[in-house]
Amino acid sequence: MTSNLFEHVDTLKTLNDNAPIAEKLACAHAALQQHLPAVERVAVALYDVRTDVLKTFSHSTDRINPLEHYQSRLADASSLQEILAHGQPRVIQDLTEFAQGKREHTQRIAAQGYRASYTMPMYHNGSFVGFVFFNSTAEGGFQEAELQLLDIFGHLVAVTVISELISIRTLVASVQATRHVTQYRDVETGAHVSRTAHYARMIAQHLAVTHKLSDEFIEHVYLFSPLHDIGKIGVPDSVLLKPGKLTVEEFEVMKTHTRRGGEIIDIILKDFALSSFEQVDILRNIVLYHHETMDGAGYPTGLKGSAIPLEARISAVADIFDALTSQRPYKNAWSNDEAFTALRGLTPLKLDAECVDALIQCRSQIEETQAQFRDIPPAEPRQHPGERL
């Protein structure tokens, strides 16, 4: 009798595991297909309120994913805006009527042969964070009983994704709060942080196909790249804020910021119980290795070439480009073309040429980012921190 107590298998057990969102989404999708086998696609898109951009984040499908590494402004998607206006899921029983739509995402979905769709907006404490999409190949659309099941699974997916986002944002906010506490020593502006994040995302997106990068990886690079120099809060003022060139001894002290940064990250992870967070190694790699160089002459460990984690190579290019194109009390801003030339000059010995080329091919996006995230001049001149180059 007792042996029968534990025979039932929890089909959603993976949701309790320390696993990537893609695996959890696949788990939920598999459980849903036991009841609705024609639902062949489950996907999640996240919303960036600062830029009004919807970007693909994760998906589960056995077919070709029609919307990977894709982003679009919400303002350009009237049908999705209608969902928010109503504040509840939208059901399309016959997608063929959208097959001739002008929007790229509509055309891609229709081209894969999906017949019906269910789209649920995700909210956290009343704030919109993105959409959950279910697409079915079944003719005749969704019946009422099927819609009730999709309601349940839609909220299940939303809760799972939001839980992941809260973990990420708690981590990012904790690191940023640490910087804000030391704001009078912080040599980076808020605009620099935002631009660096967007440049890193541009590079990662451009490399996604070649390096088989997931949308989740791209999103984490976007979130974590601006935190690369957190270790500088542990560098003495006499070094960090010194005007002019650092001595050899002072530069050795400056170099300790990478390992200090790793220590700070580990402390925050432990204090917030996030040490097992699946994507934490992306953050650690960016903080620890963004000063490694392709020729092995960098620090802290002298990694060389492809041994340097890709996320660290991406972050290095994004950070240097913004440093070059930003005005500081000790230098004028370089033009984008001047900065591109400088970046090319640093390849292949110092910077990853593939990352540099990827950024250079994003000129229009770069200009949009620079226009949106302009520096606000400080009230008083700030001293020159030791330059990284």
Helix- and strand-based class?
Answer: alpha+beta
Shape from CA axes?
globular
> How many strands appear in the DSSP assignment?
6
User: What is the topology, as strand order, of the major beta sheet?
Assistant: 3-2-1-6-5-4
The average pLDDT score comes to 86
Radius of gyration: 23 Å
Distance between the termini: 72 Å
The helix content, as a percent range, equals 40-55%
What sequence of helices (H) and strands (E) makes up the elements? Answer: HEEEHEHEEHHHHHHHHHHH
What's the layout of helices and strands?
Layout: H1 21-33, E1 39-48, E2 53-61, E3 71-73, H2 78-86, E4 90-92, H3 104-111, E5 116-124, E6 127-136, H4 144-181, H5 190-211, H6 215-224, H7 237-240, H8 248-255, H9 257-271, H10 280-289, H11 310-325, H12 336-345, H13 353-360, H14 363-372
Antiparallel strand pairs: 1-2, 1-6, 2-3, 4-5, 5-6
Helix pairs in contact: 1-4, 5-6, 5-11, 5-13, 5-14, 9-10, 10-11, 11-12
List keywords for this structure.
6-stranded antiparallel beta sheet; alpha+beta; disordered C terminus; 14 helices
Overview of this protein structure:
By secondary structure, this protein is α+β, with helices and mostly antiparallel strands. 47% of the residues lie in helices and 11% in strands. The protein is built from 14 helices and six strands. The protein has helices at 21-33, 78-86, 104-111, 144-181, 190-211, 215-224, 237-240, 248-255, 257-271, 280-289, 310-325, 336-345, 353-360, 363-372; strands at residues 39-48, 53-61, 71-73, 90-92, 116-124, 127-136. The chain has a six-stranded antiparallel sheet with strand order 3-2-1-6-5-4. The longest helix has 38 residues, at 144-181. The chain starts with 20 loop residues before the first helix and ends in a 17-residue tail after the last helix. The relative contact order is 0.10. Residues 379-389 have low confidence and may be disordered.
